[in-house]
Amino acid sequence: MPKNEMPSGVLLLLILKVLRSGPLHGYAVAQRIHTLSSEVLKVEEGALYPALQKILLKGWATAEWGISETNRKVRFYRLTAAGRKQLDLEMDSYDRVHAAIQSVLRTA
Amino acid sequence: MNELFRRLRYLLNRRRLEEELAGEMEFHREMAARAAGLPLGNTLQLREQAREVWGWTWLDRLSQDLRYALRLLLRSPGFTIAAVLILAIGIGANVAAFGFFNLIVLRPLPVRDPATLVRFQRQSPKSYASVLPYPEMAFFREHARTLLAVLAWTPGTLTIGPEAKPVRAHFATANLFHELGARPLVGRLLDPSLDDAAGAEPVVVFSRGFWERYFGGDSSIAGKVVYLNGKPVIVAGVADENFSDLSLNTVDAWLPITEQPYFIAGSKLLTEYAVEAPGVTVWGRLQRGATPKMAEEELSSLAAILRKEHPNDIWENESLPAQAGAYASATINQGHHGTGARDPDRLVPIAATAGALVLLILTVACTDLGSLLLARGVAREREMSIRAAVGAGQARLIRQLFTESLLLGALGSLAGLGLGYLVLRGLMAVSGTPAWLNPAPDWRVMLFAAGAGLLSTIVFGLAPAVQIVRHRHRATRMRQSLVAAQVAAGCILLVVAGLLVRALTHAMSDPGFTYERLVAINPDLANHGYMASRADAYLKTLKTRLRELPGVEAVSFTDTPPFGRRTVTVGADVTSHVFRAHLANVDPQYFETLQISIVRGVNLRVADSHSIVVSRSLARAAWPGQDPLGQTLPLGGIRYQVAGIAADARVASDQETNMIYGVALPSDMPTMVAVVRTAFAPEVLARNMLHIAKAIDPRIVPDVRTIRSFVNESLDSKKDTALTAGVLAILALLLACLGIMGLVAYTVSQRAKELAIRLALGAKPAQILAVVLRQLSLPVLAGLLLGLAGAAALSRLLDSLLFGIGRLDPAAYLGAIVFFAVSVALACVGPARRALRLDPARVLRSD
Fold first, then answer.
1. What are the residues whose beta carbons fall under 8 Å from the beta carbon of B355, sequence distance 6 or more?
2. Given 3-state DSSP classes, what are the helix, strand and coil percentages for chain B, each rounded to the nearest 5?
3. A57–B6: do the CB atoms touch at under 8 Å?
4. Which of A44, A50, A75 sits opposite B52 (nearest CB)?
């Protein structure tokens, strides 16, 4: 999958997933996805910030002020209970779709 | 906290949140730059993309557009004022018309709990009447379970004081004031517990207007004794001017209905059942939970019970349809009874006509504005191409232009609302409507004005916006269709106004009988308890004494005085030709007195009560292509034979020429009115006639009026209609001429170079004019044809206002065409002359 054509639904899933382990600021979210994907997936600002705004709007995460590793005041995103539920839902549906795609690819 | 709520929070804290987002993204850039060189991309655009998720971008764009539009309008005040003014005229006319409709039909009267008030009228398969006999009303009041209260009144004219000044009175059930929630200004109002009791003292409540005029606003009036019709009566109090007693009449005084016989000697109102008797207008207050349908059904079954005791008075299968009572439209009392189906509602065609006319004005205003906007499009070409060049899409540009129009529309609505209110208030002041009919716009009118503004914006703004953005605004097709629409609308209005004016002059010039020297004397014998024989004797004496009066040429009697308020109509079905006609019972001298000629056959004879005379128009309607003489007409179970044909005369109403004249029988005598023709000015003799009539029976104070005053009264309302239509037509004409002038001026300026070359090469003035006016001739011609067709279609609605003028009256149509053509020609002269005076040298050098 080319890194700049990641479907936005998948990006939402990835963001929710990396926030699961604890609150992160925007840049850290992008970094975490980048490193965890063995530097295959690169999240651009133009996709990341609209996705984060959507997550806030849906109430899946809340924003709070914190201090970054470079000692800057910056917004951290913390997953809410609703966000956790959404993550489970998206994981399930992703798994299903993924399995279905895999089975098509394997047999066809 | 749900999503909508969060969205709103984003809207309210937009500025702060935007800054936070910007800071956050700035931080991201710094970190990214540290890790792997500067990332690419427009930061502003990236921020906007993120913000778009909040869902408020449209609001930003709207406010941006609005601010821009406002600046633009402020920069060209001339255009703005002209546009708002044109729109205000168009919308104002509609607001005034709707405001009036709202007052009459939609807005409840200012009375307590209007929703539970219903009005009752009588109806049976064969007959109808707008009033009920008093005893029938009393029976319902006693037995109806669905009604909490029954209200009724009957009008009457009394005289006050030694100078016998007339007092317009309503004799009302004593609960009237209480049920309608009225408060006294002075003293007390009628009170059921005091004024309904047997042996209660007679009391009167005056209206504020009369109290101020006659008593000079005497605040100690309550408890004083005044003399009405010579009878002493105690003044109970004064009603507030805002009190609406469920009638549009101007009322001077209210008295308990049970006292009516005390003031009007011999009156049998309280016991009389006959349909010819004055009767009472009846309202009911519904019991909690009862519907009008339930009340209607209960009263109809009560009527069936009452019919067992009064089989001749209560009709077979009589029903009492209940209509919502607390509206001005429900109070319009036709004072009317007759056979067959009820007259169709005359309010509907009038309202439809008025609506169509004001809509036409709005159409003209909108097309005018549309062409103004198109012309502005030429001036804004440069601006549009710059905006397109910096990346504005077509949709964005159309939205921008449409927002400007919306702003104009809103301003126009507001101005129209004000203008419409002023016009309505002015019209109401002129026609003298009661004070409680408040023309101030309510929410319905405001909603209407806003809706009219929005609709006109779409009409005048959308198409030009699209045309301008697509660079089609120079195309003549669009302009030509706008001109055609203007001409058509203006033409319809002119024809309609022409028809109304023609009808008015026709009605004024000739109602079909000599009305200038006629006096009607109404002794109202039935109301004074006269039986047939006594009434006959009274009338004979009256006739003899009147004939002795010098200057009296002829005296006759009729039960339907010319243009009087009381009319009887019959609907009949003769050889499958259905028609409606007014019925007048007269004595044989009637035709001679009114100078209506018997064109064929013979006059009525007293001895022959089965012969009738019909008017020529009725003969044509009932027996087309046959000889009407000798035909029979069944009316109320009796077969009448047509003995004579009379010339058409509008003696019963100002519109109807279908007349049936029958011989007055002895039983008709108590309802007869004397009609006297005089040799000279009837006003002078009227006073003498009053003395003569009073001398016969001093208890009776007859109503003596010249027929001319009746005629004028009925023409007055029509005059208002014709005047209003005329003003609308002139407005439409002005607006249309404005549009045409604009088109010619635009053509000249656009084609100045071409015209200059033609002039330089020696073109004659006529040729230049032909070039300028050529593109105008087609739309004007098309508009004229369309307008004439539209007017012919619309005039079907006007029938009831045309008093016998054909709805395709050639004079009105030709007049409209000529008037229009002249106005258009005049409108073209100015701009066309500019084409002739172009200086070729200067024009060709200009760029």
1. B97, B101
2. 55, 15, 30
3. yes
4. A50
- Is any Cβ of chain A less than 8 angstroms from the Cβ of B50? yes
CA atoms B384, B387, B389, B395: torsion sign:
negative
pTM of the entire predicted model: 0.73
Chain B closest CA to A35's CA: distance in Å?
13
Does residue B619 carry a pLDDT above 50? yes
CB neighbours of residue B280 within 10 Å: 26
Least Cα distance to B799 among B350, B344, B343, B341 occurs for B350
Q: What angle do CA B436, B440, B443 make, to 5 degrees?
A: 115
Query: Does B31 contact A at CB distance below 8 Å?
Result: yes
Evaluated on CA atoms B756, B757, B758, B764, the torsion sign reads positive
Chain mean pLDDT for chain B: 84
Cβ-proximal residues to B693 (8 Å cutoff; 6+ apart), any chain:
B521, B523, B542, B700, B702, B704
What b/e readout covers B450-471, taking b as 16+ CB neighbours within 10 angstroms?
bebbeebbebbbebbbbbbbee
Distance from CA of A93 to the nearest CA of B (A): 23
Top mean-pLDDT range of B13-22, B441-450, B773-782: B441-450
Instruction: Check pLDDT > 60 for residue B561.
Output: yes
Residue of B nearest to A51 (CA): B50
User: Closest partner residue to A27 among B1, B32, B54, by Cβ?
Assistant: B32
Tokens of B510: 């000739």
Residue B165, helix vs strand vs coil:
strand
**Residue B117 has which token pair?**
């008030």
Instruction: Give tens-digit pLDDT for B350-377.
Output: 778 888 888 888 988 998 888 888 888 8
Q: Indicate the helix (H) or strand (E) that contains B661.
A: strand B659-663
Interface residue B630 vs chain A (CB under 8 A): no
Name the pLDDT band for A1 (thresholds 50, 70, 90): very low
Q: Inter-chain contact B50–A49, Cβ cutoff 8 Å?
A: yes
B617 φ, ψ (degrees, to nearest 5): -70, -35
ipTM above 0.90, yes or no: no
